[in-house]
Amino acid sequence: MSKVHWKGSALLAPVPPALVSCGTMDAPNILTVAWTGIACTHPAMTYISVRPNRHSFGILQRTEEFVINLPTSAMAKTVDLCGMKTGARMDKAKHCHLTLLPGDTVAAPVIAECPVSLECHVVQQLPLGSHTMFLAEITGVQVEERFVDSKGKLNLQQAGLLAYAHGEYFAIGRKCGEFGFSVRKKGKH
Ligand SMILES: Cc1cc2nc3c(=O)[nH]c(=O)nc-3n(C[C@H](O)[C@H](O)[C@H](O)COP(=O)(O)O)c2cc1C
Questions:
Q1: How far is CA 100 from CA 109, 143, 173, in A?
Q2: 56 alpha carbon to ligand 1 midpoint, in Å?
Q3: Is the CB of 56 under 6 A from ligand 1?
Q4: Closest protein CA for atom 6 of ligand 1
Q5: How far is residue 87's CA from residue 99's CA, in Å, rounded to a whole number?
Q6: Considering the domain boundaries, does residue 156 fall inside one?
Q7: Tens of pLDDT along 43-90?
Q8: What is the per-residue pLDDT across 95-153, written as a single tens digit (0 to 9) for each?
Q9: 28 touches ligand 1 (CB under 6 Å)
Q10: Which residues of 163-180 are buried (b: 16+ CB within 10 A; e: fewer)?
Q11: Are 18 and 169 in contact (CB under 8 A)?
């Protein structure tokens, strides 16, 4: 297999194009963030990397709280718009007809239309260059009830989550395995 060799660049894909909500129920803002991920399981830690020129940046620095909301593919246009327009000049929640719900552990609002929302408390701000990383503990999670089965297990197969890869949005498709299935003994569930 022949490869093309490039200099180092931010080419990890797919990533979740998260709708990050910050501020308060009375003064909310939403921005799209693709530079996010899980950093630790126990304690549950995540991060978002945000450019200092974003309107949300000052809010994040001041409140040290945010919510990562995972959007569906039906929300792709909303996700793009929240990544194109600034909250300095527009109420994006209102413009996109998003329903805001109170967080359990943060003052920042949760976006009702997103199947999964992670409530986060910033523990460290790391200026890295173009972006500052907000490392945060996930202090609460809200998930859409219809994706939780009778045993309390979260099934995201039907949630239709959105993915982002190198400038393009994709609807997550067919399930092709699950954690540990490569080593599971036949007939044992
Ligand atoms: C798909 C997508 C992903 C983005 N990811 C990031 C990101 O990881 N970090 C960031 O600072 N901006 C990112 N942006 C840009 C911000 O969302 C955009 O500048 C937004 O308008 C900022 O809103 P605000 O000024 O209301 O804070 C992304 C935009 C899009 C469309």
A1: 6, 14, 28
A2: 9
A3: yes
A4: 33
A5: 16
A6: no
A7: 999 999 999 999 999 999 999 999 999 999 999 999 999 999 999 999
A8: 999 999 999 999 999 999 999 999 999 999 999 999 999 999 999 999 999 999 999 99
A9: no
A10: bbeeeebeebeeeeeeee
A11: no
Task: Retrieve residue 45's tokens.
Answer: 């830690």
From atom 31 of ligand 1, which residue's Cα is the shortest distance away? Answer: 83
78 in ligand 1 pocket by Cβ < 6 Å? no
Binding site membership of 37 for ligand 1 (Cβ less than 6 Å): no
Domain containing 40 equals: 18-144
Centre of ligand 1 to C-alpha 185, Å, is: 44
CA 93 to ligand 1 centroid distance, Å: 15
Does this model's pTM top 0.70? My answer is: yes
The domain that holds 126 is classified in CATH as 2.30.110.10
> What domain count does the chain have?
1
Residue 186 has a pLDDT of 76
